[in-house]
Design brief:
153 residues, mainly alpha
Length: 153
């Protein structure tokens, strides 16, 4: 049961990470350039609304499966109270990953709830591009941190 659960959680986590990071990179490298080529066409807004349920579903899946994976690996909430855990390379990598996750979540909410609607009203992208790029870079960094954790680092 333990191995089957672990494999199912890994599969869900990787699928959700693929959907999230792939979607963010698609926006950064395809949607934004297309929007510049056709200003006023509403490309980012329309695609953003269509992708949002997938993106938020992926984020929700990652938030649920990540801690469950740690539990299956034998890392309990009590482990987080031990200083030696955070001094270990695995703990350091996990800590950095968690900080980046919190940043991505905060930036995503700010982007979707504040910056995006403001850009739509004014017709000016403002900080949406910068924040979108930051989300993209952090998302790739989180993915790389996950690969390091999978290797025990």
């Amino acid at each position: 049961m333990g191995e089957a659960l672990f494999l199912a959680l890994i599969a869900l986590h990787v699928l959700a990470a693929t959907a999230w990071v792939g979607g963010v990179l698609f926006f950064v490298f395809a949607v934004v350039p297309a929007a510049r080529a056709a200003p006023g066409a509403g490309i980012p807004e329309a695609l953003g609304r269509a992708f949002r349920p997938v993106a938020y579903g992926a984020l929700g899946t990652l938030i649920v499966t990540g801690p469950l994976l740690l539990t299956v690996l034998g890392i309990s909430p009590r482990t987080f109270l031990q200083a030696r855990f955070w001094a270990d390379p695995f703990g350091i990598t996990l800590g950095v990953k968690v900080v980046m996750i919190v940043l991505v979540l905060a930036l995503t909410v700010w982007h979707d709830a504040v910056l995006g609607p403001r850009a739509h009203r004014t017709g000016e992208p403002g900080a949406t591009r910068i924040v979108g790029r930051a989300i993209g870079l952090l998302s790739v960094a989180i993915l790389l941190a996950g690969l390091l954790l999978a290797q025990g680092l």
